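Quick check before the chapter quiz. The format below is the same one you will see on the exam, so make sure you can read both the input and the output lines.
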Amino acid sequence: MNAETRGPVPPGTGWPGDPATAATPVARSAEDVARLAAAAPHLAEVDARASVCRACPRLVAWREEVARVRRAAYATEPYWGRPVPSFGPPDARVLLVGLAPAAHGGNRTGRIFTGDRSGDWLFAALHRAGLASLPTSTSAGDGQRMVATRITAAARCAPPVNKPTPAERDACRPWLVRELELTRPTLRAVVVLGGFAWQALWPALKAACYPLPARRPAFGHGARVELPAGPLLLGCYHPSQQNTFTGRVTAEMLEDVLSAAAGYAGLRPGDTAR
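Here is the expected output.
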């Protein structure tokens, strides 16, 4: 990609891992998101349609402005500048749900949790737990491969100050709902990174017709909920810089939750399947 061309990368122009083409339908409203997500026949198409979404004007303006201005440290690099698709195989047994892409992380690299400090922590722990082939994730073309694991987010666009509005969260929900529907045959464990994602996940599970407990359990690190005829939900503090710098979450805490998810899903370090 030409680093001098500022702004978001058009679909189908050769960015590694870009799931969309010039013909991928574009959602321009919350109603469009609901319609296009529900009609997506498989996860590759969910990723493609989500990656060109323009339903939330504030988020579109922000992510594209970040891609034009860029951080000084990345001034010579092109920026993805679009909604960030999920990453991992369609038959995943473990699903990680985060908040949203980082402005100079996923919004720059085009891969969720890639190119920032949170991702450094997360992928190192995923690798130790046997859920990622490499301990680092630096770019969309670095050879990283998930092991029966998929990473997604409650909001697909980088939001200002890392805070999507309730309306933006709700508009984005159908992408997650369809993802939960399509992964259901293989899904065994869901790791929820942070309180925002925990709150966003429950209505998505309900819309995807998962049986839920009568009362929504509170979020906490190590929170554990076995859904009736569904996956195990595990709460985990988000590996944000604020949490890792203060010791609220440690590498061991992160690895413990991911290893619990892997074990519940029947995966062990060293597995190479999928």
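If your answer matched, good. The domain at 30-264 is CATH 3.40.470.10 (Uracil-DNA Glycosylase, subunit E).
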